[in-house]
């Protein structure tokens, strides 16, 4: 359907967008209706690894503004719902901590409602909960948020569709190639089986890596339940790029 | 290999969903330099879906070198090339207004490519949206860098002129460039998979 010069055709490495990596979601996953008009259909083009993707924004490139890892103290009163601690480490594939990297989160309130003009779910807005936070990892790659457990919420994907409770996570890591946006789920959620977003990751063990674990040690007596969520990003320590020989 | 630490498996990607602006657009990070900067350029575009409709719940992020061609990052050790005071190369724009995104930035310089080649000035782009289970990666090249584009190893690897042309921002009035992103269908933007 496309014209290619024969010589040039050989140079073009292609990969069909419906990738076979079962540990990552594909672009087109028809059970998630939103992918149908948004997944690219042309083959992806392999991009050689260069300085352009082994570099990336690091802390200091943008002032994160006021860092705020406590979502329960952003208003005059306390938000409704179960107070929780969400914490863990951000690591690279070799298990080394990713230090000083920005972690941004956003979520629904305890009733399953986002404080967003597009969210029409008729559950109440909580005047004491905005549902967004951000922090930096420390020298051990460790981060910690204080928030409330988000509610499940209905959506229009299929009849009686409900999203399992989740918190959206955005991370940069050390390079453009380590950028990750994901969702953290809660253990034992009965809604997993019917959720196409969760199940778009077809490998069961890989799905498990998106589920936090209950953490008694992080639990604060009389106050908040602890959940542990470790995150693994692509990439290694930054090493100076070798100059190409002229 | 014996004794080598087993590598950890990556955390899977998930969509940003429709409410990404709550967490990711709390501040305007679309201006990498003040609009009054003498060398400022503006890059504008619209994000379209496969039906040709603007995507109003998307997010576009850019990452680029300084005008000298150096990245403000420890992996780029070419200290003889100057960085720009106050310019770091990262930007983020939502598409809430009729799918439109825009950046005020500086034109990047050429950067080293594989095997001693030189890559033409380009901007790395990551696209996020509801319906994208993982972000898409593309590049912005510049129409008025014809000679450098002709030598660029990535552009040269794409045989189909129509595909290649989706990566070139069109120069409009003055310092304004237009770069639309089409996720699917007629004129789909070329998207990349990063090699391991
Ligand atoms: Fe959500």
From TrEMBL, chain A:
<dbReference type="Pfam" id="PF00775">
    <property type="entry name" value="Dioxygenase_C"/>
</dbReference>
<dbReference type="InterPro" id="IPR000627">
    <property type="entry name" value="Intradiol_dOase_C"/>
</dbReference>
<keyword id="KW-0223">Dioxygenase</keyword>
<dbReference type="InterPro" id="IPR024756">
    <property type="entry name" value="PCDO_beta_N"/>
</dbReference>
<protein>
    <submittedName>
        <fullName>Protocatechuate 3,4-dioxygenase subunit beta</fullName>
        <ecNumber>1.13.11.3</ecNumber>
    </submittedName>
</protein>
<dbReference type="Pfam" id="PF12391">
    <property type="entry name" value="PCDO_beta_N"/>
</dbReference>
<dbReference type="InterPro" id="IPR012785">
    <property type="entry name" value="Protocat_dOase_b"/>
</dbReference>
<dbReference type="InterPro" id="IPR015889">
    <property type="entry name" value="Intradiol_dOase_core"/>
</dbReference>
<keyword id="KW-0560">Oxidoreductase</keyword>
<feature type="domain" description="Intradiol ring-cleavage dioxygenases">
    <location>
        <begin position="86"/>
        <end position="114"/>
    </location>
</feature>
<feature type="region of interest" description="Disordered">
    <location>
        <begin position="1"/>
        <end position="25"/>
    </location>
</feature>
<dbReference type="GO" id="GO:0019619">
    <property type="term" value="P:3,4-dihydroxybenzoate catabolic process"/>
</dbReference>
<comment type="similarity">
    <text>Belongs to the intradiol ring-cleavage dioxygenase family.</text>
</comment>
<dbReference type="GO" id="GO:0008199">
    <property type="term" value="F:ferric iron binding"/>
</dbReference>
<dbReference type="GO" id="GO:0018578">
    <property type="term" value="F:protocatechuate 3,4-dioxygenase activity"/>
</dbReference>
<dbReference type="InterPro" id="IPR050770">
    <property type="entry name" value="Intradiol_RC_Dioxygenase"/>
</dbReference>
């Amino acid at each position: 359907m496309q014209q290619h010069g024969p010589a040039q055709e050989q140079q073009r490495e292609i990969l069909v967008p419906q990738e076979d990596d079962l540990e990552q979601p594909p672009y087109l996953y028809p059970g998630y209706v939103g992918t149908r008009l948004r997944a690219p259909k042309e083959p992806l083009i392999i991009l050689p690894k260069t300085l352009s993707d082994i570099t990336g924004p690091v802390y200091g490139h943008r002032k994160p503004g006021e860092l705020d890892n406590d979502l329960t103290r952003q208003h005059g009163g306390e938000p409704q719902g179960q107070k929780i601690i969400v914490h863990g480490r951000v690591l690279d594939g070799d298990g080394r901590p990713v230090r000083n990297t920005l972690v941004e989160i956003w979520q629904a309130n305890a009733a399953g409602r986002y404080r967003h003009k597009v969210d029409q779910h008729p559950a109440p807005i909580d005047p004491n909960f905005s549902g967004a936070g951000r922090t930096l990892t420390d020298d051990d790659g460790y981060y910690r948020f204080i928030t409330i457990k988000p509610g499940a919420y209905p959506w229009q994907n299929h009849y009686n569709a409900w999203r399992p409770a989740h918190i959206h996570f955005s991370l940069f890591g050390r390079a453009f190639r380590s950028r990750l946006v994901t969702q953290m789920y809660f253990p034992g959620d009965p809604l997993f089986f019917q959720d196409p977003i969760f199940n778009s990751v077809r490998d069961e063990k890989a799905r498990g890596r998106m589920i936090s674990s209950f953490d008694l040690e992080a639990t604060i007596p009389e106050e908040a339940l602890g959940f542990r969520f470790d995150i693994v990003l692509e990439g290694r320590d930054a090493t100076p790029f070798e100059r190409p020989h002229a | 290999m014996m004794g080598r630490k087993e590598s950890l498996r990556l955390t899977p990607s998930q969509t940003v969903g429709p409410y990404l602006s709550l967490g990711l657009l709390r501040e305007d990070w679309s201006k990498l330099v003040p609009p009054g900067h003498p060398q400022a350029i503006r890059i504008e575009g619209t994000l379209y879906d496969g039906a040709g409709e603007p995507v109003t719940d998307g997010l576009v992020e850019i990452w680029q070198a300084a005008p000298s061609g150096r990245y403000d990052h420890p992996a780029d050790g070419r200290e003889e090339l100057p960085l720009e005071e106050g310019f770091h190369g990262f930007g983020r724009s939502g598409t809430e207004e009729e799918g439109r995104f825009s950046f005020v930035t500086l034109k990047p310089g050429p950067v080293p490519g594989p095997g001693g080649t030189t890559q033409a000035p380009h901007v790395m782009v990551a696209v996020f949206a509801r319906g994208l289970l993982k972000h898409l990666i593309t590049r912005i090249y510049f129409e008025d860098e014809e000679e450098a584009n002709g030598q660029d190893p990535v552009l040269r690897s794409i045989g189909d002129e129509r595909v290649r042309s989706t990566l070139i921002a069109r120069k409009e009035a003055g310092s304004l460039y237009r770069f639309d992103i089409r996720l699917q269908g007629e004129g789909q933007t070329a998207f990349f998979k990063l090699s391991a």
